[in-house]
């Protein structure tokens, strides 16, 4: 690995020597009030229209220009623009603090031209979420939720009520890589999918890549949801929190050493179980049902060149049925990052990442007592380098070595139990990657980003590994020792995207990327469940592969106040996984014999109109798409609509700031019902009615639509103390979206059958939250 | 997981949320007239029955056209055959019994098409007892949880199917188990009877409960297990439903199950 790295470095250095003589301007961009670094703030040189850049994940920026007198312009949404005169004769380091706009000013459209990144950047298929906006959007029970909000973006589909899984461009839920400060979050939901694991108090920045995936990301087919936590205020101690309908939150942040280091701790706990105490039923009364999570982060800047960040997440769901049954599950992640600025052109970040997901299910009744556990643990070392070669070339390169350890299931019992103790062998694997990419400004009009990612996967011993024939019978069995490579897969993943600027306000872009996936979710349930099981690529399971091409047209209106985009994509998917009839996935050492493999395709058009600024802002997104799968054993090997297929998907979000105290918001969604299997006949066996089926996913649930409204009332301004009320009304007109449809004998007219739909959140649900900050 | 989710829904639904159920109209397709064969053959000498019908559209009443005039033949391992006689429309019977550890072949000829299935009668595992204890919920109303008890042999792979009758009415829930998790153990298994008025019913003090235990072979287990998984489709929709895998070739709806049978009956005490 290091040899490769050296070669790349040497190549870069020789490149620099022949590059034109320019000076580098670099520095860090921060929030003037909290000291938080600002991600994606833009820096431009007024005199050179083509020179500009954006700050990276750590607020660092670097650009270069020839000798001269310039004006630097720093902009960031919701912040005052700062301009600074500069006489450039040598490399300069300029650290800038931007001041957030006060409420009053925010309603006035900025006189400075807002940024036109969407037009110039070659990146396509990316959704950047603004946390301030997320906090305004009404959600069920008032729990602001990143995962719920991204489903309002075009190309992103909700898994349905009570399901925080989401589908991106026809991919399944497990094809999304969800990372929190670079650590993979395996089960991103609480309470079996009703809430996401991300407490929005602790979140600073959210990016969703749907296509044109940058080369530094990999490992999943559909998307990367990159979530970054707040660093913490390094100027003052602040406390903020909220008391809501079902949960309360508290966040404390402050400096460790003023202007040098800070910390942030944010926690959340639900108290649904308090309602349980009101129940008359003694079992419900004695039961528990809650989740909590804790985000913590600390950072310290040793000097201008070195900084360290520590961040962690810990969350747990607990569900107990008196003294009879108990289960808990949760994620924990930890990330240590070290930033080093080698020179004003070379920025380095080294990360050591830990991630763990586990569950425990216990039954305490003597005859059926058991304890079942499962665990997945990742260790990841990652090195990312950013090199500003010239104002025309920005390189990114790096590697990561990720070790998975999966303990698929273990059951422990005692003598009196009906069950045997057993455990399925632990599995180990390495997911390694090496990447390089170049953001190349070819000329005034054309920007190209091209990258290459080499992914290498190795399934490791020790253990006994079996091969199966298509019928699921064992054909071969081999035992490997510790450190033996059982199976390896190498894939080259090209990532290319280009933007051609037609004029000041419009551009066209195209991209192609290949992604591969070596860790697969095995579940035959549509909703996320704590017993989600992961399997790695192996002698039986090949890596899933996706090739995506996309094409887009982008147009800004009224000085970039309105952004419009139209993107079309086509995706080809290989080695997808489905399950045989009667597959049993839990605690099964032959689980790989229960799988069948197929292919898929997805295509669609996404239209997006967004108003980013002003008293009234929001967006309209519409997607017309298709997602299909093909498995030899299903529907005679024909393409059929995948579970995540929705033909039409419309979302409208509007936020209106009436005055300094009141802000109103609403969101509306309409989407085609999901593809489902309905009976096409019935018959009788064993004295009961059974249903016969002729086609998988041949029908549609009724279309879903829903209107939610919300309002925020800011408290009167106090010197130190600030408070606000958030009100929301979910499902305003009480639309009954069928959550499940069951077929059964009619209890009211015997001898006939009927279809029954069950809906949840089927009536308007109000909620109120009180937020405070001091 | 279905039960987990149900608890959560139940608990969430209590104070603040209304989950609601409603009968809906769906435009369902019509793929009917398919052959349905239900063939059971036990180790107890008596009337063995093969029922042949056809499936009907979802919207029709639950009356299924019998298939008359079929030729139904049972063959044992050494080639002895026995032809079943049609004793009622679509009902074919013979007064015989099977032996454990024997494989039987059933052929059904109708409309000049021959359907064949084989099934094996495994060793009989002794049903020790059936018991009840107060249920988790509604115990104060006399609701009970029903358990069956048996010693699973450790040297064999065993599959079981249970059928429950409450006050002489068959409970619709399918119960199919194997010994994956309890091979060689003294097994106490809770057979949960659903209690919503629309569906099945719970078991309460005073009820007369009969449980039949069948020892079945692997393909028949897969048939019932698949069915069991589908009926617990539950909130959110579990596996995509499909016709359970039949052991008939060419494919037909239904199954041929050769199995052991034994039953126990209790009157549930308060």
Automatic annotation (TrEMBL), chain A:
Cellular component per GO, a single term: cell outer membrane
Gene Ontology MF annotations: siderophore uptake transmembrane transporter activity
Record domain TonB-dependent receptor-like beta-barrel: where: 306-731
Membrane topology designation: Multi-pass membrane protein
Cellular compartment(s): Cell outer membrane
Gene Ontology biological-process entries: siderophore transmembrane transport
Keyword Cell inner membrane (UniProt): no
UniProt xrefs under InterPro entries: Beta-barrel_TonB, Beta-barrel_TonB_sf, CarboxyPept-like_regulatory, Plug_dom, Plug_dom_sf, TonB-dep_rcpt-like
Family of this protein: Belongs to the TonB-dependent receptor family.
Name this protein carries in UniProt: TonB-dependent receptor
Species for this entry: Mucilaginibacter myungsuensis
UniProtKB/TrEMBL annotation, chain B:
Pfam family name, one: DUF4249
Keywords for this protein: Signal
Name of protein: DUF4249 domain-containing protein
Signal sequence interval, chain numbering: 1-18
Annotated InterPro entries: DUF4249
PROSITE patterns: PROKAR_LIPOPROTEIN (PS51257)
